[in-house]
Specification:
- This protein has strands at about 5-10, 20-25, 30-35, 40-45, 55-60, 60-65, 70-75, 90-95, 100-105.
- By secondary structure, it is mostly beta strands.
- The protein has a single domain, classed as 3-layer Sandwich (Rieske Iron-sulfur Protein).
- Strands 1-9-8-4-3-2 form a six-stranded antiparallel β-sheet, with no helix packed on it.
- The relative contact order is 0.23.
Amino acid sequence: MEPGSFVRVASVSEVRPGRGRAVRIGLREVGLYNVGGRIHAVDGACPHMRGPLTEGRLAGAEVTCPWHGWRFDVTTGACLDPARPWARIRVHDVRIDGGEVLVALRVPERSPPPDAGPLLRF
């Protein structure tokens, strides 16, 4: 799958408010979240130890990893824990077409793997 190509992953009715839904696009698991009637798509694994974010608790736009409690904003990908400002989850583009959810994977040109932690320079 080409980065930036939209693919159908679910119908809007399958992405219930306040819950995560895991879908697969190629080899990547993506989490879909309905926040206030708007669908958001992010990588489905926590950058800490690859915990399943879609199994975590969603409160507003905040999802909590069920394994170790890391918290992320599903609208921006930012980690909400002040001690981990470097931790992020990748946010993907979403389009709604005729009641169907389409997602295009966003793959940055140069980024460390999600579990790499902070970049240390000496």
